[in-house]
From TrEMBL:
Pfam families from the UniProt entry: p450
Protein's name according to its UniProt entry: Cytochrome P450 711A1
Cofactor section: heme
Entry's family note: Belongs to the cytochrome P450 family.
Keywords: Heme, Iron, Membrane, Metal-binding, Monooxygenase, Oxidoreductase, Transmembrane, Transmembrane helix
Source superkingdom: Eukaryota
Binding residues for heme: C518
A GO molecular function held by the record: monooxygenase activity
Length: 575
């Protein structure tokens, strides 16, 4: 018996011996093969050659093969390590390598409500490689946002944001002591006296908003309330944050730009829109962003390559982000030169606050640029969404509309501008309506945080670096705190009512929770209130038959509309 396994294998029975010959002739013998040999001799002769060949093949391929196996194992360890660290937290099965991203893209954040029902108030959800620990309970939100804030004070940085210097230097993504110091400076700029001083500006734009609607109404056209609300919000941020006039509520302003150099407002906004729309929580972003969800370690090198290839999405995004930075720098330079002590905008306040050495060190030009630009990102779609969904919900509930209009009329003549105090004390029902619409449609349904120490939440030990996301949208529909959670009933927020008194204090947190909650909450509510007061002084609304029901949304950093919300404006009889 030949000890060589290859020879043993090749010692085949007679019926197929004819094959050996052809096999042998096909082999690359260095010398001519003997002609008349029995299959056995033939094979023994072949044995050495085959053995040699296989040997050398194995020798040359082995390192490659071993390296591939090692790489595969390495990748699997790398890929599954974050999961392994939180494996005890329950969660649905995932799909390799995308996790639950397709779920989120298809169903939006509502899918989390279903998961919370199945897995409880704390569960796992995977964005590609990255597991999120989702917290969907008011008391647990308090624990994450307040009680354990010291250990969970940073935000996790999602893959779409990692490449943007504008995003990384904004307050939203600042970390640790830099965040604390910057937040302290900015908080001082959002004091009630400052907000009160912005009322005339906000009222001015709310009036232009109504004029635009009246033009549309006179032509008997539908009002694209979501689009107009966004224009209003951008105009207000333009003036209050940058100190410039975008003029989007003016006629034809969106067409004013033909040449890249002499269009300030609209080109800037177009670039902003492109940049912001690339921040998607699905797999439709640039190649490096998508890769970042699966193998974050490769995202940066990949972006560095692709941003040099003109046909790549990374290239376009990089170019646009650069141009955006240049434009913001130009605005800052211009505003710095013409600024006076009376300037009320955020940029002026920020530049003025560079008095102390600490502020000067913190507020370098690139940080000022990011902090001002952040207002456009954080403060436009959010307020516009809230405003338009409130008008939409009221248009579907005439009994709410009647009470609201009565309260607004009770306040006084139509040209009376409410003061800061009026807005707080004389519009209790308006408050309830806004809260309820933010509960039904929570524009920021997920709030991202990350542990900086090992910490225990809801009975699970979460290691340092765990992404903990608060599901505000799920908490807002928890039937424990909101009976019949899908019914729009502003009275549930009546401060004198039992439901409101009994409710958990953190069951309704559309602006987040704790020291890291939205810095401009009061600014946003002031803007929405002034716009609604102005609107309902002149109009009531009904859904346009041309609008699809129910409204559909897409999820990027916040919720936004797939299609416009279209309403019919009806001029009030006594207007
Ligand atoms: C209806 C409108 C708005 C909603 C619903 C909203 C919601 C939120 C939420 C949920 C957070 C995260 C809070 C947390 O982590 O606990 C946040 C943070 C933030 N928001 Fe707003 N926001 C709105 C308007 C605005 C406006 C108008 C601005 C600026 C002018 C703004 C600027 C910010 C900033 C800078 C942060 C980061 C705060 C930090 O990390 O310290 N937001 N917002």
């Amino acid at each position: 018996m030949n000890p060589n396994p290859w020879c043993t294998i090749l010692m085949l029975p007679h019926p197929i011996s004819s094959l050996y010959k052809s096999a042998a002739t096909a082999l690359p013998f260095r010398h001519s093969p003997p002609t008349l040999l029995s299959p056995y001799t033939y094979l023994c002769f072949m044995d050495d050659r085959v053995h040699e060949m296989v040997d050398s093949l194995v020798r040359s391929c082995a390192p490659f093969f071993l390296a591939s196996v090692a790489m595969l194992l390495g990748f699997l360890v790398y890929f599954y390590l974050p999961y392994w660290r939180v494996r005890r937290v329950p969660g649905p099965p995932t799909t390799f390598p995308v996790g639950h991203i397709p779920f989120l893209a298809k169903h939006g954040p509502d899918i989390l409500r279903v998961l919370a029902k199945n897995y409880g108030p704390i569960f796992r959800f995977h964005l590609g490689r990255q597991p999120l620990v989702i917290v969907a309970d008011a008391e647990l939100c308090r624990k994450v946002g307040i009680k354990k804030f010291k250990d969970i004070r940073n935000r996790s940085i999602p893959s779409p944001a990692t490449g943007s210097p504008l995003l990384l230097k904004g307050l939203f993504l600042l970390r640790d002591s830099r965040w604390t110091s910057t937040r302290n400076i900015i908080t001082s700029l959002y004091q009630p006296a400052h907000l009160a001083s912005l009322i005339p500006t906000m009222h001015h734009y709310a009036t232009s908003f109504c004029h635009t609607i009246s033009k549309i109404q006179r032509n008997r056209e539908d009002v694209p309330i979501s689009e107009l609300s966004l224009r209003l919000a951008i105009d207000i941020i333009g003036k209050t944050a940058f100190g410039i006039e975008f003029g989007l509520l003016d006629d034809d302003s969106s067409d004013c730009c033909n040449d890249d150099d002499d269009c300030d407002g609209s080109c800037f906004l177009r670039q902003h829109t492109y940049s912001i729309s690339s921040l998607k929580m699905d797999l439709s972003g640039s190649f490096s962003t998508t890769l970042g969800m699966i193998a974050p370690v490769l995202q940066k090198p990949c972006r560095e390559i692709f941003k040099r290839i003109p046909s790549a999405a990374d290239y376009k995004l990089h170019q646009i982000n650069q141009r955006l930075c240049q434009r913001i720098d130009a605005i800052i330079a211009k505003r710095s030169s013409e600024m006076t002590r009376e300037s009320k905008d955020f940029l002026a306040a920020l530049l003025n606050s560079r008095q102390t050495r600490l502020a000067e060190n913190l507020l370098t030009d690139s940080y000022v640029r990011a902090l001002v630009y952040e207002h456009l990102i954080a403060g436009t779609k959010t307020t516009a969404f809230t405003l338009s969904m409130t008008v939409y919900l009221v248009s579907q509930h005439p009994e709410v509309e009647k009470k609201l209009v009565e309260e607004i009329d009770r306040f006084g003549p139509r040209d009376l501008i409410p003061t800061f105090d009026d807005l707080h004390s004389k519009f209790s029902y308006l408050d309830q309506v806004i809260k309820e619409s933010m509960r039904i449609y929570t524009v920021s349904p997920l709030v991202a945080r990350e542990t900086s120490q090992q910490v225990e939440i809801g009975g699970y030990v979460l290691p340092k670096g765990t992404w903990v996301w608060l599901a505000l949208g799920v908490v807002a529909k928890d039937p424990k705190h909101f009976p019949e959670p899908d019914v729009f009933r502003p009275e549930r927020f009546d401060p004198a009512g039992d439901e409101e008194k009994r409710r958990h204090p953190y069951a309704h947190i559309p602006f987040g929770i704790g020291p890291r909650q939205c810095i401009a909450q009061k600014f946003a509510i002031q803007e929405v209130k002034l716009a609604l007061i102005q609107l309902y002084r002149h109009y009531v609304f009904r859904r346009s038959p041309r609008m699809d029901l129910p409204p559909e949304f897409q999820y990027g950093l916040v919720l936004s509309f797939k299609r416009d919300i279209m309403l019919r404006a009806i001029q009030r009889a006594d207007d």
